[in-house]
Amino acid sequence: MKVMESTKEAVKRIFCSFLEEKGFRKTPERFTILDEIYSINHHFDVESLYIHMKNKKYRVSRATVYNTLELLVSCDLVTKHQFGKNMAQFEKSYGYKQHDHIICIDCGKVVEFCDPRIQQIQSMMGDILKFDIKHHSLNLYGNCTKLREGHCDRRA
Fold first, then answer.
1. pLDDT (tens digit, 0 to 9) for every residue of the chain, 156 residues total?
2. Helix (H) or strand (E) holding 103
3. 3-state DSSP of 117-151
4. For residue 112, which of 123, 97, 121, 101 has the smallest C-alpha distance?
5. CB atoms within 10 A of CB 57
6. CB contact at 8 A, 34 and 72
7. How far is CA 10 from CA 3, 63, 95, in A?
């Protein structure tokens, strides 16, 4: 619990500095959205975050959620993903190690994985091609085992 709280304090400080530097207002709603995002342990879309917050009786508009997410992406506290034809999904990014994704093309299920060989390939290709690589994104698309077993929740 202590580690999570220190992460939440760190992201709050980073966001506060970003808002001040860019001349944006520091509203309670923005910080509430940030806190909720850093309480979620999975990918989410704007609508699910909005509904989650409404169910917890927070008074935030859909527009505030959209706008705050864009600010959080701009200051690298949240990562935005576009997995295939599905709507954008987001995940918290501060303090989280590099990882990649496998996405089911039928139900949209997203599974994270980390393999050190990918980091080795990134370093080697940077050296060979004379690039200072800062980050990468690897998304693999296929069908989950639930689909093959006939239990997949198709979204198509």
1. 444 568 899 999 999 999 999 999 999 999 999 999 999 988 899 999 999 999 999 999 999 999 999 999 999 999 998 887 767 889 998 877 778 889 888 888 888 888 989 989 999 999 999 999 887 888 898 988 875 666 555 443
2. strand 100-104
3. HHHHHHHHHHHHHCCCCCCCCCEEEECCHHHHCCC
4. 101
5. 6
6. yes
7. 11, 25, 10
Residue found under tokens 């008074």: 59
Distance CA 70, CA 64 (A): 10
CB 43 within 8 A of CB 9: no
| Alpha carbon distance 43, 119 (integer Å) | 22
Q: What is the pTM of this model?
A: 0.74
Which residue, among 83, 82, 119, has the nearest Cα to 99 in the 3D structure? Answer: 119
Q: Which residue has the tokens 């400080």?
A: 13
